[in-house]
Amino acid sequence: MTVTVSMHFVNELFKGLPNSSTSPTRYLERAGISPFLLSAPHGRVTVEQFAELYRGLVNELDDETPGFFSRPLRGGTLKLLCLSMLDAPNLQVALHRYTQFFRILLDDFGYVFTLEGDFARMALVEHAPLLGSRTLIHELMLKLFHGIASWMIARKIPPILMECAYPQPPYSADYLYFYPGTVRFEQPQTAIYIDRDFLDHPIRQTKKHLGAFLKRAPADWFYVSFADRLLTHRVREHLARHLTTSGTVHSVADALHMSPRTLARHLKREGTHFQAVKDEYRRDVAIQALTCSEKPLISIAEALSFEDLACFSRAFKTWTGNSPAAYRKARTAGNAL
């Protein structure tokens, strides 16, 4: 999975945590994240690194929502939640159980599930001020719902609309991959809308599938490709297969059976443009290679279709605020500690 996330998710994860003898630096190093990224402009980590960090905090604190709420959700809570949903006759009944589960467990937070015309709406409700980072909690708890719902019916459920009860964050370009669909900020409630027809789908998963699902959490919830619905995702998938041989706007448009102008128009409608999609893909592949492999910098540059190492270094610094050499050096230094 060559997807990265903003350091926002890492920095905000440490807010609300109880005082501990374990410093944030040690948590980061255990997850393979260099502490220098905490203050790096535009720093990013792989989804796997963030998931490893999240799991480390969960295990250390015995709280599956680490520091989010006034009451910790002890280890095994998510497993019990899923078990309570597995024998539901369809997704609608399962989601009712989902909301009831959190109503029983938490006093300061919950979900409200409603039907509105052709849509089903799951909203977040705060009954008291949240202990952790409010924006991060909203982001992750909505992803939790969406990830579990999609897994339950073994179908990718495309979000139709996401409403966010917070201002548009500087890293909102990530939402095109994490919350594919229309996104509106500064709304009265944080909520996600899905097609109502999905509610009739039967539950496809069983207990024997649950262990693998939980082991991968939360990595599998961050990015799911909707290439059948979003042109941005189709472009990214094409680049993943053909970057070195078919990575120009004209060649991609031709491969997708449209003109460059049509490609540009559709991408603009999704809130992006071709060069941004290409740069985001190359940035993510570069970060993955720098943090998870020993590939020489020149080899990474060539694989990403840069003319030379200098061009790659300039682009990478524009994307992340640091040179590729700095990323690799920091990782090596962190591993040596």
TrEMBL record:
What GO molecular functions are on record for this protein?
DNA-binding transcription factor activity; transcription cis-regulatory region binding
Q: Name one GO cellular component term.
A: cytosol
Q: Which domain of life is it from?
A: Bacteria
Domain named HTH araC/xylS-type is located at 233-330
Q: Which PROSITE patterns match?
A: HTH_ARAC_FAMILY_2 (PS01124)
The record, for InterPro entries, names: AraC-type_N, Homeodomain-like_sf, HTH_AraC
Q: Which UniProt keywords apply?
A: DNA-binding, Transcription, Transcription regulation
Q: What is this protein called?
A: AraC family transcriptional regulator
From what organism does this protein derive?
Halomonas campaniensis
